[in-house]
Design a protein that fits this description.
Layout: E1 11-14, E2 20-24, E3 29-30, H1 37-47, E4 58-63, H2 69-76, E5 81-87, H3 93-96, H4 101-105, H5 111-117, E6 123-127, E7 130-136, E8 148-153, H6 167-175, E9 177-185, H7 190-198, E10 202-207, E11 214-219
Helix pairs in contact: 1-2
The structure holds S-adenosylmethionine.
Length: 221
């Protein structure tokens, strides 16, 4: 059974590209790379994920919505997107207020605020092109009835949350992808790669963001 993470303390830290992130001392885990939160998100999820999708509208599922950084960067592309963010333990308002993502991304329409003002469990229009459903639920418990073109797998690492790096969950995510759909994660562990392959993903090992040698991308073929 998963430990309730709502009770864990969280500290805001500054990563090497100047963008903030969150550190969870009890787990000894960060929400993003300490080499650069925005840098990592742009490389892994936008560059290796979203930029590889040519169809529109694009349906995206994010596992681990967290601070909403991936969501903001995705929204800022201006592309036509439905974004389903799954998060079991939403970040508290006072922590969100300390994050500097709007200042560093040219978010002059305050989309970061709109993303966080949006109600949970409700399909909301953030911009004419961007719809967001924030879903407060454990990813293991959700029933995925719709199909997605792209999955951002941004859970805490396998050391911290082994139960999320599991073929049973990978199978569920694989089933929820369209043919040619893409799954991206910052993680490059051999066991993760093999488990993803075992449920059907065609896996590529790609260069990681600065500070990280590799990352993984899977396709449903
Ligand atoms: C690496 S952080 C996510 C970073 C996030 N994408 C961002 O840009 O801030 C992992 C997230 O997974 C969430 N999480 C942990 N267990 C979960 C679960 N069982 N189901 C869904 N989300 C979970 C955590 O609360 C945390 O927000």
């Amino acid at each position: 059974m998963e430990k309730d993470q709502n009770r864990l303390s969280r500290a805001v830290i500054t990563t090497k590209d100047g963008s903030k992130s969150i550190f969870v001392p009890e787990l000894d885990e960060h929400y993003h790379s300490v080499h650069g939160a925005i840098q990592e998100a742009l490389h892994v999820f936008i560059g290796m994920g979203l930029d590889q999708c040519s169809n529109e509208p694009i349906r995206i599922l994010e596992v681990g919505f967290g601070t909403g950084l991936n969501c903001l960067l995705t929204c800022l592309t201006g592309r036509e997107i439905f974004y389903h963010g799954v998060e079991a333990y939403p970040v508290q308002r006072e922590i969100l207020n300390k994050l500097n993502y709007s200042e560093l991304t040219g978010d002059n329409k305050s989309l970061f605020k709109s993303i966080h003002k949006a109600s949970w469990q409700s399909d909301e229009r953030i911009t004419p092109n961007f719809r967001l459903l924030k879903d407060q639920v454990l990813i293991q418990e959700i029933e995925l009835t719709e199909q997605y073109n792209l999955i951002y797998f941004d859970a805490f690492g396998p050391r911290v949350q082994k139960e999320l790096w599991d073929p049973k969950l990978y199978r569920k995510l694989y089933s929820a992808l369209t043919i040619n759909g893409i799954f991206v994660t910052y993680c490059a562990k051999g066991q993760v790669r093999r488990d993803l392959q075992s449920v059907g993903f065609k896996i590529e090992r790609l260069p990681g963001p600065p500070g990280k040698r590799e990352m993984l991308r899977g396709r449903k073929v």
